[in-house]
C-alpha cells in the first residue's frame, strides 16, 4: 500500500520505515539502550513514541488540524499508529475526504518528522503553519513535475523532481569519490569538504571491498553524510563524478542491489535540512579521486578526517591544492546525533569522527563488525 502512494521514493521509504517501526524516536532509542531519555524533545511528554511524534505531539496535532485533512475526534488522530495510517490510507476517502487533500498526507508526515529533527539537531523551531506550507508546496511541485515528466518535456531537467536539488548552491560543498578495482580486498573513499571558500577538510576511508564500484561510491557518500551530521553540519551540496550515483539519487531510480544503502541514505537525508547532489566532471574531482586511491592503496580499514591531506603520497600535491589551516573551530558544537539511531547502518559510524587536533594525523581503526556492506 505504501509503495503505491503517489509520492517520491524517499517519502515512501520513510513511511515504510515508520510502519515497520524502524524510525529512531527517543522512546525506541531508549528501548534499544541507545539513550536514556524517552521523553519528547518537542513537548516534554514522557514518551516520544512514533505515534506521538507524528500525530499526538502538540505541534504535530496542530499541523494535521491545519492541513485540511478532516480530523475526527477520537478517530483521527488516535492513540494507535496503525489506526492513524488506516484512516489516512483507507477510511478517510470513504468518509468523503477529498483525494487531492489526502494526497498531501505523506508530505505532512515527512515534514513533521523533519521539523522534529530540526528541533533536536539545530534547536530550530518550525511552526505548524510552516510545516503545512512546506508539505503543500512540495506535494504540488512533485505533482507538477510528474505531469511534466509524463508529457516528456524536453530539456532533461531531471533535478526538478526534488525541491531540494539546486545546481548553484550557496551551501557548503563536498566532493566525494571512491576507488574500486577488481580483486582488491579493499576499496577506498575520499571527500573534500569546503565549508566556506578556503576552508578545506579532507576525509579518506579504507573499507572492505564492496560489491561494485557503485557500492563504493554510495558508501563514501553515506560516510561523508554521517560525518557531517556528527559535526552538526546539516546543509550540504555534494558533488560526484559518478553519474550513476547522481541519477540514482536525483531520479530516485530503483536499484534493488542498493537497497540497504538506499535505506540508510533516506534515514540520513531526513536529518539534513538541505541536501543536493550534482554531477561534476572527473577533472574537477581530482582531489577526492586521489584521496580515494590513496585510501585504497593503504590496504587497510581506517578512517581519517583532517585539514591536512593524509598520507605522504599526497604531500607532493599539497601545494597546488591551496590547503589552509584547520578550521575545526567551526565544528565546535557537537550535536546529539546518535549514529545508533540509524536503523540500517551499513558502515561503522560510531567510532568515526572526533574533531582532530589541528595539523595532527588522526587515524582510527574501524571495528570489523561495523564495516558491513553485505
Ligand atoms: Zn511531544
Structural class: alpha/beta
Let me know the CATH homologous superfamily of the largest domain.
Ribonuclease H-like superfamily/Ribonuclease H
Question: Biggest sheet, in brief?
Answer: 7 strands, mixed
Strand content: 5-15%
- CATH topology-level fold name of the largest domain: Nucleotidyltransferase, domain 5
**Could you name the CATH class of the largest domain?**
Alpha Beta
In angstroms, what is the radius of gyration? 21 Å
> Going across the major beta sheet, what is the strand order?
5-4-1-2-3-6-7
GO molecular function: nucleic acid binding; RNA-DNA hybrid ribonuclease activity
InterPro entries: RNase_H-like_dom_plant, RNase_H-like_EbsB-rel, RNaseH-like_sf, RNaseH_domain, RNaseH_sf, RVT-Znf
Organism: Brassica napus (Rape)
Protein name: BnaC05g14790D protein
Provide the fold topology.
Elements: H1 9-19, H2 26-31, H3 50-56, H4 58-66, H5 81-94, H6 99-102, H7 105-122, H8 128-150, E1 173-179, E2 186-196, E3 199-208, H9 213-230, E4 235-240, H10 243-250, H11 259-271, E5 274-279, H12 286-297, E6 302-306, H13 315-318, E7 364-365
Parallel strand pairs: 1-4, 4-5
Antiparallel strand pairs: 1-2, 2-3, 3-6, 6-7
Helix pairs in contact: 1-7, 1-11, 3-4, 4-8, 7-8, 9-11
Bound molecules: zinc ion.
Region (Disordered): 335-374
Organism: Brassica napus (Rape)
Domain Reverse transcriptase zinc-binding: 1-64
